[in-house]
């Protein structure tokens, strides 16, 4: 994964002063790195009987749907409130300051269905934990949680004990 | 494409009264339909020398990155203001009421590079026209513009005369 790691660039002071943002857009722009990222995320869960891949907008959609195609699975979008047109279930979760809410279509998951959760970045894990809760409330089984990049120093993985978690690239 | 068309459901009065929303989430959830949509979009441009696929957040990311993988191309995200971390170029365009702005990374396209634009839906075409303008201002060449669904009665295709446009499913 060194090749992928080299394509991630640091952007200092984004989105605010003192934060070093890990920008994956150079990786996405590189055809071979994009394919390698998608196939490697899929490889870690090929034995997991994944029926659907689920991702949260907006950046999660980039790798999520491509991984779904790679695994021969369907794709489920989780979105901000008011974006999904049919009957939805929502989850509100805590941020550092305030709260955020995400929604899933109520018919997106069938009971017992194995769902792989995909996102580009594991930071504190709050959004992903809320996304997992939505899938489980619909009766889905979390087959695994896949990240392209994990910021291990934020200890987000602690929120997913008992789950099968895979991160391709870890920054300590 | 009848099989794909059957997976698109009408949601009346969304996002506002009197609008019938074409919801593609049942298509995305179906593994075979998702793959068929992605490979069919790619098929229409396999001869076009596509180096990069470009899509606008959020829904454009779903098919865009998967089509990039299918074509062996890189992926370029266009986003709402303030979301892309590095140096950006922006385009402001007219909506029915007011304006909207989208951004692209300044280093996303190399001069002469062939870029395929992908989105799930062609309605009035305002956002896609702005996205094409951004790519062209960076020196990119629009290899084509691909939509999963075209609402032909809104006549958005008129904005793309002279471009190679392909829509998999058209509603008259």
Q: Mind explaining what this structure looks like?
A:
2 copies of one chain form a homodimer. With 172 residues, chain A is α/β, with parallel strands linked by helices. Chain A has one domain: 3-Layer(aba) Sandwich (Rossmann fold), CATH 3.40.50.2020. Helices cover 27% and strands 34% of the residues of chain A. Chain A has 5 helices and 9 strands; from the N terminus they run H-E-E-H-H-E-H-E-E-E-E-H-E-E. In chain A, the strands form 3 sheets. Chain A has a 5-stranded parallel sheet, sandwiched between helices. Chain A has a two-stranded antiparallel sheet with strand order 1-2. In chain A, strands 5-6 form a two-stranded antiparallel ribbon. In chain A, strand 7, helix 5 and strand 8 form a beta-alpha-beta unit. In chain A, helix 3 packs across helix 4. Chain A is globular, with a radius of gyration of 16 Å. The mean pLDDT of chain A is 97.
What is the N-to-C order of secondary-structure elements of chain A (H for helix, E for strand)? Answer: HEEHHEHEEEEHEE
Radius of gyration of chain A (Å): 16 Å
Number of helices of chain A: 5
Please estimate the helix content of chain A. Answer: 25-40%
Q: What would the principal axes of the Cα set say about the shape of chain A?
A: globular
Low-confidence stretches of chain A: none
Assign the CATH class of chain A.
Answer: Alpha Beta
Number of strands of chain A: 9
* Cα separation of the termini of chain A: 15 Å
Question: What is the subunit organization of this protein?
Answer: homodimer
Largest sheet of chain A: 5 strands, parallel
CATH architecture of chain A: 3-Layer(aba) Sandwich
Biggest chain pair interface: A-B, 42 and 42 residues
Average predicted local confidence, pLDDT of chain A: 97
């Amino acid at each position: 994964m060194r090749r992928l790691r080299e394509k991630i660039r640091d952007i200092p002071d984004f989105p605010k002063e003192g934060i070093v943002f890990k920008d994956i857009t150079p990786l996405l722009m590189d055809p071979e790195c994009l394919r390698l990222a998608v196939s490697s995320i899929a490889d870690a869960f090929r034995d997991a009987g994944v029926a659907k891949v689920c991702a949260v907008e907006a950046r999660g959609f980039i790798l999520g749907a491509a991984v779904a195609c790679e695994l021969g699975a369907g794709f489920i979008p989780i979105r901000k409130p008011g974006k999904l047109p049919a009957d939805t279930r929502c989850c509100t979760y805590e941020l550092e300051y305030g709260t955020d809410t995400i929604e899933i279509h109520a018919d997106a998951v069938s009971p017992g269905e194995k769902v792989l959760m995909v996102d580009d970045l594991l930071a504190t894990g709050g959004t992903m934990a809320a996304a997992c809760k939505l899938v489980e409330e619909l009766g889905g089984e979390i087959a695994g949680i896949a990240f392209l990049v994990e910021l291990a120093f934020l200890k987000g993985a602690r929120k997913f004990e008992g789950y099968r978690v895979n991160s391709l690239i870890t920054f300590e």
